[in-house]
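User: Here's a protein and a ligand (uridine-diphosphate-N-acetylglucosamine). What would the complex look like?
Assistant: Let me lay out the input and then the predicted complex.
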Amino acid sequence: MGNKIIITGGCGYIGSHTVVELLENNFEVLVLDDLSNSTEKTLERIEKITGVKPQFIQVDLKDASKTNAIFSKHKDAKAVIHFAAHKAVGESVNNPLKYYKNNLYSLLNVLSAQTENGIDNFIFSSSATVYGTPKILPITEKNETQRPFSAYGNTKKIAEEILEDLINSSDSFAAISLRYFNPIGAHDSGFIGELPSGIPNNLMPYITQTAVGVREKLMVYGTDYPTKDGTPVRDYIHVVDLAKAHVIAVKRLINKKQDEAFEIFNLGTGSGFSVLEVINSFEAVSGIQLKYEVTARRPGDVPQLFASTALAKEKLGWSAEKSLDEMISSSWKWEQNLRALENSKL
Ligand code: UD1
């Protein structure tokens, strides 16, 4: 029996780490990616790690007929893991239609193509952004969702609602939505990691780029939040821990082990760290003093987010294993490796 999984966005940050974990669990993988924010070289780097080069098709999933044509040739796939999406929060506020078109057309085309071709299992790449500004911490999956501040965040919330409706209409379609907290870190091999294009929006790549001298200094967005040291608190999670959760979730779907046709899990560590704590840990791990300056709050940032990890532990038997220092040291190793990697044949 085949065990093919279709991974959209498999050349991207979380997608590529998940491809590695799937290959190491003997799954067959088909990667679909438009390479709009990633590189095909990632596939060779995955081969370097796993010994297997995943099958790859470059496609824009906004194109319904091309998407359909691919899925009709891969009806034997057991599940789809859908990572492909735009993810720059600030850009989505300035250009919401780009985000609604890309993230939602792609989702609708994938769901149509897979259900028309009898592929009934779907894993969705969601985000803690669907909780908005949480009233209760830690955040359980029962926390109410709120309309996210950004169009990016809203595409995640709308996508979950679309999935709910699709599941209610079907006897066979099943999905798991994984709500990520703040993924950072990179593969231990140093071959894959986050590849932000242009100026990074997120904290960790900004820190590592500042430390190597690509950016002049880090701006700390606000020290007047009601938190332990005035800077916002987030639940940072190692991308490899996150990737492993996808393997468990896909097995749960394929083996029909769900309690309900649509399940939602938070993926975090349950621990919150402030921006200043992350900076301090980076300095301790790297031995570098980071240049930073405190500036005004960034619109849309919430004071504190951290996950309740109880449900993922109970139902998936998964919990994050890697510490903040491991996350930071792997991100740092990746940043230092990157230029050498870009100048090599890989
Ligand atoms: C954001 C998105 C989240 C998305 C995640 C990964 C929202 C509300 N959050 O999370 O949905 O999944 O990115 O793409 O839409 N910071 C600085 N200086 C910087 C960068 C960040 O001080 O240069 C601070 C921010 O104020 C924040 C923390 O670092 O408190 C983390 O920021 P970031 O890495 O961008 O993640 P989130 O905003 O939490």
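Summary: The chain has one domain: 4-342.
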